[in-house]
Write a structure and sequence with these properties.
This protein is mainly alpha-helical and 231 residues long. It has 11 helices and no strands. The protein starts with a helix and ends with a helix.
């Protein structure tokens, strides 16, 4: 039950903020960020609600892990450890999902709402997406704080660090994906191939790490800016 509510929250909760932002003519990325924050508040509310209820998220998670690992024989403990880690970073995963949904929802809703609203701003192409260059210092500060909390050895610190690590890696993997889209655009390679490549990189081992490193390099070295100047 609660797992389904989390999924719905990640998908549906950004919608009100996105509709409001489009109607106000707000910056698209600011609007999507507002949607992510709204979803985050909803996710926290659902976690709190489940924590005071019998059969909440923790219970559902334990039952799911038990049922999945029961038939795995000698590898039960290995898979159980992997699934437990996956559950630990579920909040971050849901937040990242809300970011993807918010971006897609903005693009879809813009097409509907722009007809009656001249102030609506179109979402720039994904190849132009970029974190502000000086934001990398803030990201690394957050990462260092989370690493310090983990080093302190507290259970809450380890969970917080694991979730921040997922958000940190995903944020810069998005930046790396945008770099891939820019390169394909410059080389006039079909966008569909860029989509396939990015999805494949996200799925295969170390692929997301490559996108992450590409994103860091893009911000630090200004790769896309240099590519654009050379065209």
């Amino acid at each position: 039950m609660y797992s389904g509510l989390l999924l719905l929250a990640a998908i549906i909760f950004p919608l009100p903020a996105i509709i409001k932002g489009i109607k106000k003519g707000q910056n698209p990325y600011r609007t999507v960020t507002d949607g992510i924050i709204t979803a985050g508040v909803g996710l926290v509310f659902i976690y709190i609600l489940s924590s005071v209820s019998a059969g909440g998220i923790a219970f559902e998670t334990e039952e799911s892990i038990r049922l999945i690992t029961e038939s795995l024989g000698e590898k039960t403990q290995e898979y159980k450890k992997y699934l437990s880690r996956a559950v630990t970073v579920l909040p971050a995963a849901m937040l990242c999902l809300s970011a993807v949904c918010g971006y897609a929802e903005y693009k879809g809703l813009f097409r509907i709402l722009q007809k009656d609203n001249a102030k609506a701003m179109e979402m720039p192409p994904f190849r132009d997406f970029s974190w502000p260059r000086n934001s990398i210092y803030g990201w690394f500060l957050i990462f260092i704080i989370s690493w310090t909390m983990k080093a302190a050895g507290s259970g809450l610190g380890e969970i917080t660090a694991a979730n921040i690590n997922v958000i940190f890696e995903t944020a810069f993997a998005f930046q790396g994906a945008a770099l891939v889209f820019m390169i394909f655009f410059i080389k006039k390679i079909p966008k569909a191939l860029a989509v396939i490549l990015v999805i494949a990189a996200w799925i295969v081992p170390f692929g997301k790490n490559i996108l992450f490193m590409a994103g860091i390099a893009d911000i630090v070295l200004g790769i896309r800016a240099r590519i654009s100047r050379n065209q």
